[in-house]
Amino acid sequence: GQNIDQPTEMTATEGAIVQINCTYQTSGFNGLFWYQQHAGEAPTFLSYNVLDGLEEKGRFSSFLSRSKGYSYLLLKELQMKDSASYLCAVGSDYKLSFGAGTTVTVRA
Amino acid sequence: GAGVSQTPSNKVTEKGKYVELRCDPISGHTALYWYRQSLGQGPEFLIYFQGTGAADDSGLPNDRFFAVRPEGSVSTLKIQRTERGDSAVYLCASSLGVADGYTFGSGTRLTVV
After folding, report:
1. Residues 6+ apart with CB under 8 A from A63
2. CB B98 to CB A31 under 8 A?
């Protein structure tokens, strides 16, 4: 089975940086995913890490350490529209297992 | 189609009734998934189809839940004798493979009263 932990809530100021941590224990692994979910909407794909290291995509970066079972999502230059839930998900075999999500609130 | 389409977007039903939820995946995506999401939680896996067959239905909570995908495209999730605890958002996703991530539909919000 999968055990995926991430903080419940985080608050940050517009223009700032926020780092959302995710730790996982898994019986199989073929990638770590981050999804963004606005209230009342479907999750949308943000990033995918399968090898250790940092993947950068615009204002968003994601890091993975497979030996530590650890990932983080870094959101830079925060904008009000970044207020959402961020879901960490572990891929194993053919399916994803999701954490409960981290609600990020961006304040003006 | 351009995205994953789910219908209806909202469904209110009485306890004990039968409901069907429909998912139309992205054309060409052979993998189709059903998840259930309760308020404040992440999506919870229900069932996975590869083509027409249910490759993994280990997430279905009990035998009141059943899903089909007869032609390898559209899928229907069927819930018999609904209970109030079945109230949730039911999400469908399709994919070319896990490494490609999922594309989710907008979900069906099911409310059992």
Report:
1. A49, A53, A54, A55, A71, A72, A74
2. yes
